[in-house]
Amino acid sequence: MKQVMQAEKLDQENRLKERMSLIRHKIIVMSGKGGVGKTSVAVNLSYAFATSGKKVGLLDTDLHGPNVAKMLGVEKESLGGSTDGIDPVRVLSELKVVSLAFVAQNPDVPIIWRGPMKANAIKQLLGEVNWGTLDYLVVDSPPGTGDEPLSVCQLIPNVSGAVIVTTPQDVSILDARKTVMFARQLNIPVIGIIENMSGFVCPHCRQETAIFKKGGGEKAAQDLGVPFLGRIPFDPELVELADRGVPFISSGKDTPSTRAFMQVQKAIEEFLAISK
Ligand SMILES: Nc1ncnc2c1ncn2[C@@H]1O[C@H](COP(=O)(O)OP(=O)(O)OP(=O)(O)O)[C@@H](O)[C@H]1O
Ligand SMILES: [Mg+2]
To answer: 213 lies in a domain?
Structure first.
């Protein structure tokens, strides 16, 4: 019995390695603090990559509060599957998404799991999903440095790097610094820090207000010697679109936040091109 279980475990590990070997860049989006914009970044980055002709997978590892499906307007979809594995939900022809939201029977009922169960769920999401050949796998994480990002960083061979999202105020920056240390301890390259919700330009008077202060993310990046990827301003339209399940980058509008986001995307692509 023990031998059968060991053989099964080995099989599962081999499948995971094989599936991950078909993916060129694996990016994990993290933050120290909650609610700073990780899911918004993960969703829009994946969408932007997919509409620029790349093959993209987006994995939601926020097991307790999976928001990716809602932000892409596909929360009513469910995963397919066969003996070959789990089939992701397709949002665009080249954007495949997997989230526990597609499995949950009732979105209002919380999932209550201890650490080992979470690690096991993530192992399955990485190893049993038919991701196919991808240019990018973007992994959205819950806040902090707990079981979920730890499992992802330990299970995926050769993670390309971590994108760390923060808001500009000290309480968030302090936690972002811890996230950089976490990545370093696990030998994950830090692609860089994004300062989100950085300033708000009033659409009426054009005056800018630094709601959560400004510049903290850039200063932390300088202090820690990691790239600064850019500053995304606060934009109420971003909230509106996210609530309607529309990635704000898809609007095609030329606004300070879409421009800022495109700059962040370019900085990430440049990092990955050099690190290859
Ligand atoms: N630049 C921005 N301007 C305005 N609203 C934003 C911006 N970035 C994110 N938001 C909004 O802030 C809220 C939190 O964002 P999001 O869910 O992406 O954060 P998160 O870090 O993933 O949160 P959690 O830690 O709970 O997973 C969402 O309603 C989102 O639409
Ligand atoms: Mg989130």
So the answer is: yes
pTM, full prediction: 0.95
Kindly give the number of the ligand 1 atom that is closest to the alpha carbon of 31. 21
Ligand 1: residue whose CA is nearest its atom 28: 239
pLDDT tens, per residue, the chain with 276 residues = 677 777 777 788 899 999 999 999 999 999 999 999 999 999 999 999 999 999 999 999 998 889 999 999 999 999 988 888 999 999 999 999 999 888 876 777 777 777 788 888 999 999 999 999 999 999 999 999 999 999 999 999 999 999 999 999 888 888 899 999 999 999 999 999 999 999 997 878 878 888 888 888 999 999 999 999 999 999 999 999 999 999 999 998 999 999 999 999 999 999 999 886
Looking at the 3D structure of the chain, how many domains does it have? 1
- Whether residue 110 is contained in a domain is answered as no
- Dist CA 242 CA 67 (whole Å): 10
d(CA 49, CA 55): 8
Closest-CA residue, ligand 1 atom 15, reads 37
Atom number of ligand 1 nearest to Cα 143: 25
